[in-house]
Amino acid sequence: SVGIDFTFHNTENVYGIPEHASSFSLKTTVGKTDPYRLYNLDVFEYELDQTMALYGSVPFMLAQRKDGKTVGLFFLNASEMWIDIQHFSELSIPKVETHWFSESGVLDFFVLTGPTPKDVMSQYAKLTGLPQLPPTFSIAYHQCRWNYRDQEDVATVDSKFDENDIPYDVIWLDIEHTDGKRYFTWDVTKFPDSTKMIDSIAAKGRKMVTIVDPHIKQDSHYRLYDSASSGDLLVKNSDSNSEFQGSCWPGNSVYPDFSSPRVRQWWADQFQLDKYRGSTLDLFTWNDMNEPSVFNFPEVTMPKDARHNGGSCGSDLALSSLPYSSRSTPPSSPFCKDLEALGDKHPFEHRDVHNMYGFWLHQATFTGLILRDPNHNQRPFVLSRAFFAGSQRYGAIWTGDNGAEWSHLAAAQPMLLSLSVAGISFCGADVGGFFGNPDAELMERWYQAGAFHPFFRGHAHLDSKRREPYLFPEKTTNIIRSALRQRYSLLPLWYTLFHEASVSGVSPMRPLWFEFPSETKTFSIEDQFLVGSDLLVKPITTSNTFSTNVYFPGSEKWFELDTWTVVDPASLPPSRYQKVDAPAERIPVFQRGGSIVPRRERPRRSSQAMINDPFTLLVALDSKASAKGELYLDDGVSFDAQTKKFFHQRLFSFSDGKLVSSTIHKSEEYKDLSQLERIVVLGLTSRPSSVSVVDPRTGETRVLETQLGPNNSLIVKKPNVFVTDDWTISFSF
Amino acid sequence: AGVTMMTRLWLVALVSLLCIQSLLASPLGVHPNEAGKYSGDSFKCGAVSIKSSQINDNYCDCADGSDEPGTNACANSKFWCVNRGYIGKYVFSSFVNDGICDCCDGSDETNGPKACENTCMSVGSAHRKKMYEDLKRFREGAAIKQKWIEYAKENRGTGGVSIQAEKEAVELLNQQHEALKTQVDNLKDALKKARKLIEEADKAKERIDDNSDSNGFEFDDEDDGDKDDAEKELSLQDRFSIFQEAHGKTPQELVDEHNRLKRERDDLRSKLNDAEGKLKSAEKLQALNFGPDDAYFYLYEKTFELRHPQYTYTLRPFSEVKQAHTTIGEYEGWSDDTFTTQLYKRGQRCWGIGERETSVKYECGSETKIIAIDEPSPCVYAMTVETPAACNIEAIHKVLQELGLSEEKLKEEFEKTNGLFNWVW
Known about the structure:
The structure holds 2 protein chains of 2 kinds.
Chain A: E1 2-9, E2 11-16, E3 36-38, E4 60-65, E5 70-75, E6 81-88, E7 95-102, E8 109-112, H1 117-128, E9 141-143, H2 151-163, E10 170-173, H3 194-202, E11 207-211, E12 216-217, H4 223-230, E13 246-248, E14 251-254, H5 261-269, E15 283-287, E16 307-308, H6 317-320, H7 325-328, H8 334-342, E17 348-349, H9 357-371, E18 382-384, E19 396-398, H10 406-421, E20 427-428, H11 440-450, E21 456-458, H12 474-489, H13 491-504, E22 509-510, H14 512-515, E23 529-531, E24 535-537, E25 547-551, E26 558-560, E27 566-567, E28 577-581, E29 589-592, E30 595-599, E31 615-620, E32 627-633, H15 640-644, E33 648-655, E34 658-665, E35 676-682, E36 690-694, E37 701-704, E38 706-709, E39 713-717, E40 727-732
Parallel strand pairs in A: 9-10, 9-21, 10-11, 11-15, 15-18, 18-19, 19-20, 31-35
Antiparallel strand pairs in A: 1-7, 2-4, 3-6, 4-5, 5-8, 6-7, 12-14, 13-14, 16-17, 22-23, 23-24, 24-29, 25-28, 26-27, 26-29, 30-31, 32-33, 33-34, 34-40, 35-39, 36-37, 36-40, 38-39
Helix pairs in contact in A: 2-3, 5-9, 11-12
Chain B: H1 2-25, E1 42-45, E2 48-51, E3 78-81, E4 89-92, H2 120-155, H3 163-206, H4 236-247, H5 251-287, E5 304-307, E6 312-316, E7 320-323, E8 326-334, E9 341-345, E10 349-350, E11 354-355, E12 357-364, E13 369-377, E14 380-387, H6 393-402, H7 407-416
Parallel strand pairs in B: 12-14
Antiparallel strand pairs in B: 1-2, 3-4, 5-6, 6-7, 7-8, 8-9, 9-12, 10-11, 13-14
Helix pairs in contact in B: 2-7, 3-4, 3-5
């Protein structure tokens, strides 16, 4: 075992080192509890407010100093790790002492000097890789359940969403869809024609996901087992010779040795459409149980003396020929070089790499989904439960098997903030709670919160009652529909933020101190968060609650997103907390004065159906009557934006009575036909006498109709200019 | 006559022209009944008045969405598909111009990413064909249902017997039973008296003869077969003389009579039990609701099975549903007053979930059979049953009426098109 201590001076708050069902700002453990433990485990019905290990591990910590500067600390080590923390807040210069110890490996530490939180995130992304730019459908709403029983059930759920005018993008199949938990197969009595099923879902612009777990049923008649066993691709027992056998969903199972590039290549190959029979390019993947979960061994995982045969952390041969790989692969670290040096010849113990097992599976699946497309030009979507530093390169992560409890809804905020600051930017918690039966009110509040989480999926346990949004009383269904529509209307913002993450490493879901790093009062806030820099969100996480106290950071106004009510910083008490209404149908969300948020406000049944829909710009002015915002647009599905620069990036800025659309990047090859249908300006002090636009395509000047909206808002109707054009809209007073 | 004919033709033409005009005047997505609202120079929604040029201009001006019936600009408006040849319907505005064909006439996708073919003719033909077949099936089913209704008229409320008659029968049996019981009891008393005499004689005899004959007489003086001192030994001659003195009958004759009457009494008691059970089930039956005209009465106390790959499911309507030997619901009642779905609750418990329950949905068919079983949630089952009892011919007539059709018209079209219904509107 190796260990080292780090002390953060002038610091009261440290964050990160997910995954724990614990507070966002990490607590003192010395003399109080077990240290924070990082050891990927399949934990049944996990408890809250614990330092115990969960499904994933990122040994990355951030310290937010009292002077507003941020420091990052990354320990690249994939063995079991413990981190003890002690706060010394009463000192004149407070400090936080941290004690790191891992079971094996070397002390491979990186100190990231910031100085801003976003700088630290970018520095961390240079080490571990940038987040994938997710395909558009994957940032919309996902409908999952263990299990949609058969093809008819899938068709019924799909049409019920339509009958109730509720949008969704992806329907999921859990383990029961397989032939006896043999992944890459179908239970043909329930899914006789999966291709037809996927095609009919895809015909509505939607997608499907099936689960593919890493354990392989030990069955000599199962092609995958036969191929893995005869190809010598499996994790071995401590004798380095016999196949390691454990028990999982299918019963006796074996586990591919994903530490080896050769095994990852083989795994990726299983996703070829002619190998994964009954799959299509509209089917994506969910990797579960990849801690790995082994039912019949201590702590429900692989014994530490199981043997692996050679590995590498980074580039895979399969990916190295693709232009995209250069964007996603981090430079090799000493740890990775050590692994690579071992090669195939020197087996090493599972204890050395335990926390990376799930990461490698995620990576191999991601690679497989790229390679199955003959053009290698379809962005994958893969959800994984286990993760490690760098998993952001391969897709989404969720917080595993939570419960249908208000406390679990509340815990989602600190858990997702911890993941987000540790680079796992595409993260979410099962909406409704996995175990148990949520009542209507919990469902309403969870959907409202989930609509502002990066990954947004409703999921439910096999034994729970059906809970698709249309099964509730009308009031609840209406509230859920509104929450979903809110998510869909803000997809342009989300996509712009995911793009920002994919080039800068800064996650879309942010703690308040990310944007207000010198505002020390924000350092302990974990029940509010920001979406990007402009939306302040405070989910309601207790029952029968119709108002709440919100902390308003910064010196600018905030505008309530539904009613456009203004919160003026000048009228706030010194605490900067103000009570706001939160009726059942509303989650408190506020847009920052000084921002412009692009929206698509026409309800649609899926994100695909919104492609050419017109935009609304919600312009929230600051005290200088100015604002700005960005919009990123590409085809949402291919790598063309990254490899060929087929994308549009727009800057919208409002100042001196002019709203200007200017080009950050333009593409002739990718055409976007969306127009601007509406501008809403919040925070104007007087009504303009006229608003006009010079149409850039015709040269004609058009006077635009305006209308006063609630709370001194001004609505400008039908500018009808293309959002990807340069134009100026003038407001005369 | 020629002029009249001409006038008629002219009128037909005029009417057609008016129809076409009103169709033209009706903006895209507006139901014909609403067309009037959209005909003026301005349009009103709530307190707001807008120019008619703002109707369907792809910008939402009205809070109720009524200014954009033919676009997707308003979140809460509805689009009317005319679907000529099939059935007109509303679709959500969110479905308009989204590249997915929702109206068979393609009218929801006139300005979207993808044009839709007009499939109303084939959809309409297929629908009429199905209506025709449904009608045939419903007719067959309804004929059987009529028989069932008559059967129920004769037997319903009685379960084969009238409650009044059954009550009277029970009363009569009760009286007979009481009478016999009295006779048996009287005989028993007589025998007891006799026994006393025997005992006295016995005591007298004891002094003379210590050894006694083991052969005694027996009578079954109690239901539970309790025997007592009556078996005390006495010389046969002594016993006979004592008995004959008292009753004019031999003891054996008396015992035989007692036992005979007791058997008769026991027979009566079991008849009484049967009659009471019958009355009880008749009363239960009277409380059950077998739907309009008691059409479902015919299914009462019958058993239906479905062999599924995993289990055999058994339905006993108005009683219980089973999955193999597991009860997945006991009859609770109809789910509403349309009499199409029954609820069966309080089945065996499922671990971690609760009691199993089943809903049984009845559909029209010419014979009664379980056609599907489903488990939408764990331990919650949904069964679909075809039965003549569910054949509601009025429902079909209503659909036909909406289509502007009648049973006769449908038959006529069937014959004209050789059963294909493939004509052009």
